[in-house]
Amino acid sequence: MTQGKLNWIVLSMAVVGLGFAMPSCPGQDALQQQINTLQSANQELTKKVQALTGQVTTLTNENNEFKKFVKGASDFIGAQDAFNAKIMSSMQSSQKKSGKRR
After folding, report:
1. Model pTM?
2. Is the pLDDT of residue 100 over 70?
């Protein structure tokens, strides 16, 4: 190897070594503190989102049960309405027949 190449390799290794040995940059602590604060806030928001997701799931399930109940009540009322109409028709028919006999 030539002396010039060896000098470049040594110089490159020295720069890399200085990069590792160099103390932290000014403001790095403040930046790390901001990162830690943001990570903490993110964790809190994640917990809140999970809680809200659970509430939405519960409300969705309750809403589906309510829909089933309303459908059943609607079907029951519809059947009662048809039954009442049949009774009314039968009563009117009976009244007409009884009126004709007199």
Report:
1. 0.49
2. no
pLDDT, tens digit, for every residue of 23-38? 666 777 888 899 999 9
Q: Is the Cα dihedral 5, 7, 8, 10 positive or negative?
A: positive
Q: Is 40 helix (H, G, I), strand (E, B) or coil?
A: helix
Terminal alpha carbon distance of the chain: 135
Instruction: Transcribe 26-91 into DSSP letters.
Output: TTHHHHHHHHHHHHHHHHHHHHHHHHHHHHHHHHHHHHHHHHHHHHHHHHHHHHHHHHHHHHHHHH
Which secondary structure element, helix H or strand E, spans residue 13, and what is its range? Answer: helix 3-21
Cα–Cα separations (whole angstroms), residue 40 to 10, 29, 51, 78: 44, 16, 17, 56
Q: Give the rounded distance of the alpha carbon of 100 from its chain centre.
A: 70
